[in-house]
Amino acid sequence: MRHHLSQSELSTARFAGLLYLVIIVLGISSELVLRAPLINLSNAQGTAESILAATGSFRASLAADLIMALADAGLAVLLFALFRPVAPTLALAAMVFRLVQSVLIGANLMNLQAAVLLITGGQDISALAPGQANAMAALFINMHGHGYDLGLVFFGLNSLMTGVLIWRSGFMPKILGAGIAAAGLVYLIGSTLRFFAPEFSAAFAPAYGLTVLAETAFCLWLLSAGWASRRLRVA
Questions:
Q1: For residue 158, which of 36, 69, 97, 103 is within the disulfide window of CB 3.0 to 4.6 Å?
Q2: Where would you find the membrane-spanning parts of this chain (predicted)?
Q3: Does a structural domain hold residue 215?
Q4: How confident is the model at residue 78, as a pLDDT?
């Protein structure tokens, strides 16, 4: 068990924290600020009109998600480098699962792009009945939501592994590992409900508050890795 990080590892941790901050900020902004106000899946016509009136915001949400996926891939590699001395095989497995999530999130953006093409006339819809294009666009948006949750299955498994790595590391607080592992369980349960028992998804939604708290705490620890490591050395 290690109780401190080298200077190069501290730099890796801080850069990882910076990427994590980018992921948190862009992830929340793209979904809650830019996209959610425009979408009502029970009203395909109204959703299409909202997106058409704010196409720039909708496309900005795609750009934010793309940058987030790229940052997530970079973070996966940095966390592997940080945790490899703790447990090489487990660290590698965690990186692979996080990279799979990044790929799924990036590829899943094509569903939103398809919706934009249908709504803005970027795709020939002359063969479709009136209103059918909007209904198809709403379906693609709904598929994006399900695709995102599919990615969270892999991220949930990554979080469980990362929680174990933190717990065993010796240079991070064990409570942080417990929080990240608990967040992984929330992601796994939430995604399972989305696919197999969607009627319970809304009731479970408040549990995602735990994931925000745990990941924000992890991000802040990484950003302040030098200070935290010095405290552990003194202890």
A1: 97
A2: 12-34, 62-83, 90-110, 150-168, 175-197, 203-223
A3: yes
A4: 97
**Predicted TM-score (pTM) above 0.85:** yes
User: Does some domain include residue 1?
Assistant: no
Number of domains observed in the structure of the chain: 1
- What is the tens place of the pLDDT at every residue in 29-46? 999 999 999 999 999 999
Does residue 2 form part of some domain? no
Instruction: State the residue range of the domain holding 20.
Output: 7-234
